[in-house]
Every structure is written in structure tokens, then in C-alpha cells.
Request: fold
Amino acid sequence: MELTGSWGNTALEVRMNNTKLLSLLKTCINSKSLKQGKLIHQKIVSLGLQNNIILCKNLITLYFSCHLFQPAKLVFQTIDNPLDITLWNGLMAAYTKNFIFVETLELFHRLLHFPYLKPDAFTYPSVLKACSGLGRVGYGKMVHTHVIKSGLGMDVVVMSSVVGMYAKCNLFEDAIKLFDEMPERDVVSWNNVISCYYQDGQPEKALELFEEMKVSGFEPNSVTLTTAISSCARLLDLERGKEIHKELVRSGFVLDGFVSSALVDMYGKCGCLEMAKETFGQIQRKNVVSWNSMIAGYSLKGDSESCIELFRRMHEEGITPTLTTLSSILMACSRSVKLRLGKFIHGYIIRNRVEADIFVDSSLTDLYFKCGNIASAENVFQNMPKTNVVSWNVMISGYMKVGSYLEALGIFTNMRKTGVKPDAVTFTSVLPACSQLGVLERGKEIHNFIIESKLESNEVVVGALLDMYAKCGAVDEALHIFNQLPQRDFVSWTSMIAAYGSHGQAFEALNLFEKMQQSDAKPDKVTFLAILSACSHAGLVGEGCYYFNQMITEYGFKPAVEHYSCLIDLLGRVGRLQEAYEILQRTPDIRKDVGLLSTLFSACRLHKEIDLGEKIGRLLIEKDPNDPSTYIILSNMYASVKKWDEVRKVRLKIKALGLKKNPGCSWIEVGKRIHPFVVEDKSHPQADMIYECMSILASHMEKYQVFSF
Reply:
């Protein structure tokens, strides 16, 4: 490029200079030749042409194309009188295109106070986009007012931008109301309002508007179709998604990466992996969104092997995985309990120094808990930020999964100390720990935290509270919460029935069950389990058999092992052992179930039914010859009828096999602290005092027993 030669100052020469410089500038813009562009800029200044609007506009374009935003701003600022509105609009458009939203609003503010120009229809779309990007809805409303005052309230492009601003600032009602008032609409305005409904959790309404748009004669574009297909995915509406796909094929619509990825995602979420694979295979240029959609489909199925294979192919094709990719694969490993594959991804994260987000860290923690590797889960938790409630929730639910209830409560206590505010998920996760440990005082303390957090009206939280009080034996508190519920679902009814039944109030449980049957909430299998358990605890054989048959004949539920367990226990308690044994024998699915046989075996010991007890004992030993509890019950059964030779044989067998009964464990809550105890455990700091106290109590009990005779 040559800048030397004659540059005259006559009017004709100036015009020729302008034309020449403009041509050279456009060449620089097309080739992004910054060095040459700067030389042209110098020549423009030296010729005194820095106020030429056309040259300045092209200089701004050049600098923005090379991502040099400050020089572009200086070009504008050096113009003595920027009297051309297109110059202002061009700079604002360039700012918004490059996400420099603050500068956009500052320039607009300067324009409002510039005495010689006013914003026009090309100004507002850029300004409104900046408001959306910054989430400055107040400023956006002020701009909307200016639009109305400027007489542009009927301009479809400007009003579509206003709708878009409200939509992106999550003021969905305002966006929809404005859309409804628009006399004329364009595709952008339809897209904005369809997106509103989708983001607001109303995918049905989004699809309804999608159909209305087509009926109104508008042709959906890539943005419309992506939102519509995503709505089908959220609704798991495979048939509707297939219809949209077929329409696209029939019309010859060229699928871009966004629409194709949405289709893959929809098919994957709807469980139609073959169609997802087929659509994925047809994408010529697969971007990271396409890969993530396909991996997510396999992840939902727990197919970690396929996820890893896709991850390998991504790497081969030079696509860098995102955090979404990694969390999807980790969730697949968690669902399939594939620790080795999960560790491989964890290793990739460490080796590549990937800065994990809360989703990746949570997925890792969940994986290690699911695979029983608690130490690794704790290690991940130690190294992750703890300012987000999600990280604490994952640890609490993880400990709950592995039965570490004390640790779950400990995490909740630490969470409170660090100042992280619990949410509904926290409370519904930690309350079952109180239920399992029977620590009522701790449960009441958590109830107070729920009130502080203003979550006492949350149905799920209240249901967990009801369940906690019920399982801790606080029936009155449970009933109080139950009576306060605005709506009672089958879970709350079941919890209350279980509370009555497990604490000796069987008739109250039966009465409540009758009320439930008359309500809108219909019992499920768990409800029947609760009512059968209530009958079992109270020895109500007739009622128990009636409800067992009602479950089958009236509600069509097939009894599970747990239902048979209640029935066998009920018959066993009242000595109808042969009848219970016949039920087992004529039901193939449960005939050899160890749990049911053990229940009946214990009943045989209670009622000294030696013949049947021996028969069941042999079956249990055959099933598991190393279970010490079977031998101990058999020995106790022989001892109850003074068959000492048989007792000796069983004891020798236990000794020969080297079997030991697992030590019993109990705990007590004192002063808001939980103290666990194991048989013959002297690790407690106050063990000596405790054992001395136990000895005194035992002595008093013996005296009382002698006195009572």
C-alpha cells in the first residue's frame, strides 16, 4: 500500500483524497491490516480530515475489527461536531456487538444531552441490548419511556427490542403484555416472548405460541426452533419433538448447530438414544454444544462407557470439553457406580488444571459417595469453595446415603457456623438424620431454623418435619403439623398413619386411613405398608388380613416383600405360624426370602415351635452358613425348651466356624450432643462414671425384681 505522492488542498483534490483514503481504509478493514490502517489514520490527521464523518466511521470500524476499542473511542472524541446520528449509532452498535455495554449507555447519555441530534430508530436497539446485558431494568424502562415520547412506539424493530430487554431482565409479564399490545410483530418479537415462557418454566405455553406464530404467517427461524425443541425436551414430549423434526425435513430447512444440538438433546432426554445418535451423526461441524447434548443423553441412561468414548472422540477432533461435559460424564459414572471411570475424569481435571465449578465438584462428591469412597468425597469437599449452599447439601445427602447420620448432622452444624444459609433442600436432607437417630431435640432445633428461614410453608420441608416428629415418637407434634397442612398429599397421610402405628395407636392409624380413602389423596404401596405395620404392632390379625387383601383386590397393588413381612410378622406374633409358613410356600417370589424366613424363625423361638423352627433354621443356614444370628436364635430356641445337648452342639458349631455377633450400638442425646455407645466400648471420656452408674441401676433392677416376686 502506497501513501506517498501528491496530496493537494484544492476542493477537487480534497474530494479525490477522501475517495482514495476511503478506498485504502476499506482494504485495510477487509484484510484487518492494522499497521497500514494506522498510517492512513496519520495521513487523515495530517490532511486535517479528522472531522470527516465517513472516514471516521470507517476508522472506528477498522479499530473495532482489530479489537482496539480505546483508539476507536478516541476517533469519535476528536471530532469537533459529530452532527451525523449514524456515527453515534455505529459506535453504539459496535460497543454492544463487543459486549461493551457500559460505554454504550455512557454514549447514549451523552447523545441525550447533545443539543443538535436526537436518537432515532437505529439508536434504541443497541441501547436496549446494553440494558439487557447489564441487567439494568430501571434504565431500560427509562429508555422505553424515551421510545414512546419519540413517537417510535409503533416501530416494530424498536418495540421488539423493548420486549427483548424485558425478557432478558426476567420481567416476563411486562414483556408478554407489551407483545400482546403490539399492532405489528416480527420474528424477533415472537422469539422473545416464546423464550419468555420457556425461561419462566411454561414450556407448554411456549409451544402454544410457537403454533400461533406459524398460523399468523411467520416463518420460524433457528432461534424459534431451538426454543420450541427445547420445550419438548423439558416436557419429555417425544411425539411433539418428532413432529417438529419431520416438518423441518419436509420443508428442506437447513439445520444449523443450534437446532441440531437441541434435537440431540431432546431425543436424549426423552430416552430415544438411537434417534439422538442418528441426528448427531448428521451434524457436519459438531461444536461443543452438540457433543455435550449427546453425552448428556448417555449420561441420563448411566452409560458411562459411551460417555467416555465420546469424550475421547471430542479430544481427537480438537474440541475442548467444557465444565458441562465433565459434570455430565461424572453423573453417568455416579449413576453406573463406575469409580474407575470417574477417577479418570477427576485425573483429567487435575492434570489440565481445570477450574471446577460447583456442578463439577458436586458431581465428583456424589460419585465418591455412591461408590463408597467416603474419604475421597471428603477430600473433594475440603478443596471446594464453601460459600454455596449446594456444596453443603451434597455432603449432607452423601452422608445420608451411606448411613453416616451423625456426620450429616455435623456438616449441618458446620454449615451454620460458616454463615451459609440453609435452603429447602438442606432441611429435607438433614431432617431424616434426626429421624434415623431418634434425636428429637436436634429435630426441634432444626424446626426453629426452618421458621427463621421462612420455609415453614414449604410443602416438602413440612412433609420432612412431619416425618421426623413421627419417627421420633412425638406424635402430638406430628399431628399438630399435619393439621396445619393446607393440602395433604399421600406422603403426609402416610407419615401420620405410620406415626400412630409405630407408637401403639393402631386404632387412630386405622381411623386416619379411612379418612384418607375418602379424601383426594389415594393410598399407595407405602401407605398400605404403614397400615399393615400398625396392625402388626397391635396384633390386629383380622384387620391386617383385610387391608392386605384390599390392597390387592381394590387397588391392584402387587404385594412387595415388605408387605409380606408385615403379614408374616402379624401372624407370627399371635402364633399362627403354620399359616404364615404356608403363605411363604405358595408364593414363589418370596419362598426363599431370607428376611421373611428370619421373621418367622424369630416367631418360632417366641412360641417355642421347635419342629418348624428347625426346618426354617436349616433353610437359613443353607442360605448363609456364616450368619451368627441364625445360630444364636436356634440356640436360644433350644434353651427355651431345655434341650441342652442341642444348645451345646449349636454353640460348638459357632465356635468352630469362628462366628461372632456384630456388636450392638446405641446412642443418647444429652445437652444437644449425641453420644454413641458400642458393646464393651470404653472409649467415651466419661466411661468409668457411666459404667458405675449402669452397675447401680442394674443392682436396683435386681432388687426390684426380687421384691416383685
